[in-house]
Automatic annotation (TrEMBL):
Keywords associated with the record: Signal
InterPro entries referenced in this protein's UniProt entry, alphabetically: Ester_Hydrolysis_Enzymes, SGNH_hydro, SGNH_hydro_sf
Alphabetical list of SUPFAM superfamilies matching this protein: SGNH hydrolase
Keyword Cell division: no
Residues of the signal peptide: 1-19
Gene Ontology molecular function terms on file: phosphatidylcholine lysophospholipase activity
Pfam name, any one: Lipase_GDSL_2
Domain SGNH hydrolase-type esterase: 54-204
Keyword Signal part of the UniProt annotation: yes
Protein name in the entry: Lysophospholipase L1
Source organism (scientific name): Flagellimonas taeanensis
Length: 214
């Protein structure tokens, strides 16, 4: 009886920790902001995913000839993005979407097969709801704080690259190797936390991604 009471006490906490809609408030704020920026008369390109996209603050400035909307939400995984495809992507009727997920998935020890299965479902939904929209998967990046997991990241990148290669209308862009120098991670492209990038890091991303935007 005592064990049952203890379990009941912890159930609300466990339920909150695994709440599927933990990003509702943040996504609502992102939606409000982008709704004020979106010019419905112009083609839109959406960048979405976890904090490496969310913190790319000069994204629109780097592509001045395009209408670029940043709907990134920090801490997200593929499974989180799957819940908000309408709000963060489809509601802006984009001609192209760039997706950066997988970084937090690997760190959270999500199985690679699960990650790929979720990403495949996302691609299916997007292509069904918006035919002709181009989709670009950005590879999970290397970082100082997660360098010990580099083997899993590289395996995931290979799997995502294969998924893109067999899916019409989907491309894979590799930012992993450009962030290395002679197989070693460049140290001066990150902020103090060793996870997120500074402007030098985003310069690398820009050089890699620009051809896929234009």
């Amino acid at each position: 009886m005592k064990k049952i009471l203890i379990l009941l006490l912890f159930l609300p906490v466990l339920g909150w920790a695994q709440a599927p809609n933990r990003f509702d408030e943040e996504v609502n704020e992102i939606k409000k902001k982008n709704d004020t920026l979106w010019d419905v008369s112009r083609p839109a390109i959406v960048f979405t995913g976890s904090s490496s996209v969310r913190l790319w603050e000069d994204l629109q400035d780097r592509f001045p000839d395009q209408q670029v909307l940043n709907t990134g939400f920090g801490g997200s995984q593929f499974s989180d993005l799957e819940l908000y495809l309408d709000e963060l992507i489809l509601s802006y009727d984009p001609v192209k979407v760039f997706i950066y997920e997988g970084d937090n998935d690997v760190n959270a020890k999500v199985k690679l097969r699960t990650i790929v299965d979720t990403s495949e479902r996302i691609l299916d939904v997007l292509q069904q709801k918006k035919q002709g929209m181009e989709i670009v998967l950005i590879s999970p990046k290397p970082s100082i704080s997660r360098w010990k997991l580099r083997g899993k990241y590289k395996r995931l990148n290979r799997k995502l690259a294969r998924l893109a290669s067999k899916t019409e209308g989907v491309e894979f862009v590799d930012v992993w190797y450009p962030m290395l120098e002679k197989r070693k991670l460049k140290q001066d492209i990150f902020i103090e936390d060793g996870l997120h990038m500074n402007s030098k890091g985003y310069d690398i991303w820009y050089d890699v991604i620009k051809n896929y935007v234009e």
